[in-house]
Records
---
Amino acid sequence: MNIKTVLRPADEAGVDQAAQLLRRGEIFALPTETVYGIAADARQGAAVRKIFEAKGRPQDNPLIVHVAGPEMLPGLVAEVPERAQLLISAFCPGPLTIIMPRGPEVADECCAGLDTVGIRMPSHPVAREVIRRSGCAFAAPSANLSGRPSPTNAQDVLADMDGRLPLILDGGECAVGVESTVVSVVGPKPTLFRPGHITLEDLERALGEEVEVSAAILEKLPEGAVVRSPGMKYKHYAPKADITILDGSFEQFRAYVQAHADQNPGCLCFTGEASQLGVPCVEYGREGDGADQAKHLFRSLRALDEQGDGVVYARCPGRDGLSMAVYNRLVRAAAFRVVQL
Ligand code: TXA
Ligand code: MG
């Protein structure tokens, strides 16, 4: 691939160009409130295939279809189940993807052989304006090369996608920083497939019932296990460094790092801790503040890569509320290596 990539502001003219590309069956990158995405018209199979090619994405990993509002759903979904209605009223537009029965107009390439489709209504004004001007629902995965951390600013998109797509719309830094919460309302029980800014507790409150948590969220699945959400089985967010999460207090963490000084380790730590550790550090957010950690995690993983490879010890985020989303990404970046201190 050697396409000339233009990075331009997401202003009137930029958004207009993006809307034209969408209608013509071309791909481009754009900001959303979660992370940057690579968009293609969800009804054009040939356009959607270009996304897989640009990312080097496995064909069996389905894409999320983005719409402005529920009025765009006919044709894309077979029905809007009652639970989906409740979730839409509570959280949309916003950082939530709802898995629903698939409709006839979605390109096969979006669904990877499943009879369901992931639907999301982004709140970011640029994403919404592109949909409005083009009249198209767009399929979009995160705008990273497959396996790399999701990009949360336009420069990080360029680092991965230069030469692979014609346009990157620069809309500044993403507010949320981790990808949308993915919840399925197909099947007997609602199920959380991927944690995000909308938490498990938020979903249960809106639905008035318990939501099942897919086993793959916090733990490594056994070899050959069946996954209902294919994205969960891939090694994800993998930086070059060998990250190990150390679960314990700051004092225990510092002692462990000092005891392993012969490895010349680096650290991924909380805000304000770098100066106390005496080794190269990247800070990824305030301790106990899941929203702040979510916002900075992916940029921090990329910053680690820019420092080089080697051994990295990471401070452990919580596992509940918004921290579940942070832990879910970090434990994958660490290839599930967690040491209890
Ligand atoms: O915040 C986001 O969701 C971003 C922005 C660009 O909107 N998009 C994103 O897409 O994160 P992607 O492709 O990187 O992640 C989509 C996840 C994958 O884990 C995939 O397996 C799952 O959603 N998914 C999509 N459609 C599905 C379906 N029909 N059934 C089960 N899982 C599905
Ligand atoms: Mg992704």
Note: The mean pLDDT is 95.
---
Amino acid sequence: MTKEFTVPRISKILSKNGLMIKPNAANYIINSSNTEEIVDYLSNNSNITSTINLDYIKDIEEKIDESNTDESNTDESNTDESNTDESNTDESNTDESISDSELNKLLDSKSNRKSREKEFNETQKESESKVINSEFLNPKEALSQLEESIQEEKTIEEKGERKELLSSRYPEWYNTMFNRELPDIEPRVGVTQEYTVEGDITGNSRGTGEFEDFRQIFKDRHERLTKLLNKRAGAKAYTVHELKKANKNGKNIVVTGLVWDTFVSNNGNYFVELEDPKTNETLRTVFTDEKMKDLFEKIVPDEAIAIRGTLSDDGGIVFGDSEIRKGRPPIMFPDIPRKNKHKGPNETTHAALISDVHVGADEFYPEYWNQFVDWVRKTPTVEYVIVAGDLVEGIGVFPNQDEELTIVDIYDQYAMTAKMFEQLPDDVQIIASVGNHDTVRLAEPQPTLAEEFTKYFPENVDFVGNPVNLNIDGSNILVYHGMSINALAEVVPGVSAGNPTEVMKLMLEKRHVAPIYGKNVRLAGEQEDYLVIDTIPDLLHCGHVHKYGQDKYNGVKIVNTATWQGQTSFQKSKGIEPDVGYWATVDLLDMKVEKHTVKK
Ligand code: D5M
Ligand code: FE
Ligand code: ZN
């Protein structure tokens, strides 16, 4: 029997020593030529853990402390503990130069952006002065178990044998999906001509991981959404900075900004503090009328809004209006204008929408997948299949995940997915985006998969980042995996992740797919905010929450396409009951959406 040694295998062995590693770190190990190099790498990089769980990090830190005080430790592979200056020089890791534990600390703080900036600098310093004791990792022992299989794995890659190995490695799944009679492929109707991709970060990422880049996304968000808010307000909307210079004290004005903070005072007044991210100036606004409650509660931190009210005589505060004037409420979101003309192709043609396939997870349903494959083969109007992320289950996404994996090898997971996609007709264009389980950075916007994973797939599969705006012969489909759904559901009363379309409406209203920075949402510093919804889509397609839903908002269709994975123990612990085996079709001619499901 072939001994499997791959990224997850390294992950597993190292995690027994208390450390989970990211795929790129594991890659480094696979590609290293000698043990010394690897030991060096592991000892000098404290930021390669991949876990998303803060308790887990704490656990590791405790273990490090314990092993630091262990006197019996005389292993010569120990690095000098005073050698701290180079502990953060992992160049292969530029995608996430903030380590996960630092990020978690940042994200967990309820505070506003300014204190997050302070913490960012502090945690940076803290991590620089921390060295992980190599005895704790015990890399030599772990690696001696692995060296032989490293070589084997390299040979498999070099000879391109991975797909051939799937049948012996995962016979049950393999036989269910690939040793069966497939229905004939109906020729496609051939209506669509071309599609284009807008707003994809892939290949355009220019973030350096510096805090300044991080501020830049908020400046860009503010600038672009202020333009929309100006239209929405139907009047000149001042930025906080402009207003402070405009000599409008005592006058009725409209002011825009990013939401810095909101709170309800003891007297039940609603306070909203706005910020101008260009100058860092802030302005307090207050609503005293109870009927503003619903609008006030829709406001989330870091989003761009406009407020109408009277600037106080000393210019220090805005007293918010309470009446709708000319159809405009005193709290305005950028929103989608009501009329939304659609120019699609002239004849019926369908895009099939799916998400969260989670290949590799124990709970993936190959029998359900077969039904989807058969349906696509038999349905000639389907010319596109669009996947909204989480193609595979991934590895090291949460602690002990490997106990629920049928395929504990990330390359095998993608190779299996590739083989599954090969059963779809060659002339169906598959467009695959990524999610939090795929092998890309967690921070949004996410670039697409690297060539080392996409190389297994047939030519009719294109890979794109997350989010992305697809234009298929004039029909605009905004694809976003949906990590912000949990955060929005947590902050805004009356919506829940179990009913995702209500949350997706908020994205459209806020013209931003992930307005809150924090909770489970991480943002990558870039020159532009790729998460702003500039182009009004005809359809917004998300996944992530594993619940099917379809609806519309101001003429924009909304679909969440659930999952192909049954309930995991993590989901059970959170009370999440997934909808398994669903897909939607959208007719690009008239944007009519239909729900489909497998026979169970
Ligand atoms: O998401 C699977 C399910 O788990 C989905 O319902 C969202 C939920 N989920 C995922 N991450 C989180 C966090 N951080 N908080 C709350 N709920 C979460 P998947 O991305 O497939 O694991
Ligand atoms: Fe998922
Ligand atoms: Zn997800």
Note: The two ends are 36 Å apart (CA to CA).
